[in-house]
Design goal:
alpha+beta, nine-stranded antiparallel beta sheet
């Protein structure tokens, strides 16, 4: 009888310790897998940008930099604030001469588990012109991680819809369990983002009116990326969870992206992570609980810069 009780006590102690370790390993313990050293890439020309400047009557010496605009020989970013569905939405209209200016960066320049940093801090270190939070890859043990042409993780995550960015600047959506990332890289893939879902494909909304990400609330702060045309992109962040800005449902976000011309649009990490940084400042109001405004530390960012 005593041995049985002793065994039960020891089993419970081991079980509690194991459970505590799993929780710590998943959410707190930092695991660095590799550090990242930026590499330069060759320029590619897109003469359409000069036409855009001509159409806008832009003749000033570059760069032109204001609270809502950044323009130089290679990059044009115009940020506009909208009100949709009682929600404040920040839209960055981006035109590039080359996809090399569309980049991603890891927190602390390190690929690993639970290594996080604020969007603004990563963006400032990278001299980003504009940046948004990425897919928070570090919170997941699986899911393809291809960034700036380098493959960091090749473990697929079942039915995850993943955004692929190619070296010609085009976008595509894949389902990870159906596609080998090495095959996609052979076709010229340079970035993958595995959060989702896909919002718009071929100009058509891909989510239903009641669809959500896991157990998320119906209306949330959101972050999304979309492509309108060759080297013409949108980065979007919406505020949410407050009286001033309720947030968007996935369908409302998809509708917004489609209505602003996106042929393909993709949902990045949102909620308290939703952050837009532009010209040295955070332009939206990140919040997790709807009371305190503070940036959440994240695993990675998507940014425009040199």
């Amino acid at each position: 009888m005593k041995r049985s009780k002793l065994f039960t006590i020891l089993f419970c102690v081991v079980l509690i310790c194991f459970t505590a370790y799993v929780l710590l390993d998943t959410f707190l313990i930092e695991r660095a897998y590799s550090s990242v050293t930026p590499e330069e890439s060759e320029d590619s020309e897109n003469n359409d940008l000069e036409q855009v400047y001509a159409d806008r009557g832009i003749t000033e010496p570059f760069p032109i930099q204001t609270d809502t605009m950044y323009i130089d020989d290679n990059i044009s970013v115009v940020v506009t604030e909208y009100r949709e569905h009682r929600t404040t939405v920040y839209v960055a209209d981006i035109r590039l001469k080359s996809v090399e200016y569309l980049k991603s960066a890891f927190a602390e320049d390190t690929f690993g588990r639970n290594i996080t940093e604020k969007v603004a801090d990563i963006a400032k270190r990278k001299d980003a012109i504009i940046a948004v939070n990425g897919d928070f890859y570090g919170a997941q043990p699986r899911g393809y991680v291809l960034r700036n042409g380098e493959l960091y993780r090749d473990l697929s995550r079942r039915d995850t819809e993943t955004l692929i960015v190619f070296e010609d600047g085009s976008f595509d959506i894949i389902v990870e369990r159906k596609v080998d990332i090495e095959d996609v890289m052979a076709e010229g893939a340079i970035h993958s983002f595995a959060f989702g879902p896909a919002l718009v494909v071929d100009g058509e909304i891909m989510v239903t009116r009641d669809q959500e990400v896991g157990i998320s609330m119906e209306s949330n702060p959101r972050t999304a990326i979309g492509i309108i045309d060759n080297l013409h992109y949108l980065l979007i962040v919406s505020d949410g969870r407050t009286k001033e800005s309720r947030g968007l449902s996935l369908y409302e976000l998809a509708e917004f992206m489609r209505d602003h011309g996106c042929k393909i649009a993709y949902n990045l990490d949102g909620g308290g992570s939703a952050t837009m940084y532009f010209n040295g400042d955070v332009v939206n109001f990140p919040t997790t609980n709807g009371i305190d405004y503070e940036e959440r530390s994240v695993s990675d960012i998507v940014y425009i810069g040199y």
